[in-house]
Amino acid sequence: MADSGSTSVGEIDVSAINLLKGAVELDLNGKYDEATCFYQEGTKLLVKGHKAISEKCKQPEYRQQLQEHLDRPGAQDRKNFLSQEKEDAKKVTKIKIEENSTGHSYDKLFGHYLNQHVTSIEVDDPYLLTDFQINNFKMLCDLIVGKKIPVKTIIVNTKSKNSQKESFEKIKKSLDRNKIELIIKHYPTLHDREIRLSTGIVIGLGRGLDIFHNCDISSQEYYNLELRRCHDTTVTITHKNLTRDLTS
Questions:
Q1: What would the pLDDT profile of 135-194 be if each residue is shown by its tens digit?
Q2: Which residue, 59, 62, 68, 53, is CA-closest to 23?
Q3: Half-sphere exposure of 229 (CA within 13 A, CB side)
Q4: d(CA 240, CA 85)
Q5: pTM
Q6: Are strands 93-97 and 201-205 parallel, antiparallel or unpaired?
Q7: Sign of CA dihedral 127, 129, 132, 137
Q8: Strand, coil or helix: what is 90?
Q9: Rounded distance between C-alpha atoms, residue 45 and residue 21, angstroms
């Protein structure tokens, strides 16, 4: 029968392993705040277990486990992300786009927020109705795919129009090949226009994705957003926590 000391250490060991396994799962799903808490509690238990062990031969084993989790790939990146997220939650960025100006591609406006921590994206845009507007959405999807980020789902909330069903299906098949699920939801009374990232970033679009003047499909600017002339509009970038504070 094991003595109370060894049982205590065994319980610490099991608890630490469970916490660290949970941390890894949360980490992979982009839930960095929760993952960090689990990592902290798990490593605390490993330290406690290390101190509780009387057999010196086992102490190096605990030190190795602890160091492996502290040195886990992405640990510093995760720490930097959480620090940046706190900064983002304190500020509002407004980008004014002048009528007929150029150089305002989606990538330049908010591409740097499409980083390795984004796992899902939700787009509210009631006016994905014309072929030109659908192409704007396709260009956004191309940007997301090109960033090679771990996005698993893109949800689009828009007004219903059966004539665009075929266009959405083509985009859906293209995204499927890149292991991204496209979900289309129709809301006839939808008005607000914004993009929400799983990291908490909220991109408010005064005109939705339709910030560009129409152009001919044979023109060079049709496939290069930086060459397109823009409508007069404003893009507002903030964090969901700040948005909640401002509206509460």
A1: 999 999 999 999 999 999 999 999 876 668 889 999 999 999 999 999 999 888 999 999
A2: 68
A3: 7
A4: 11
A5: 0.69
A6: unpaired
A7: positive
A8: coil
A9: 13
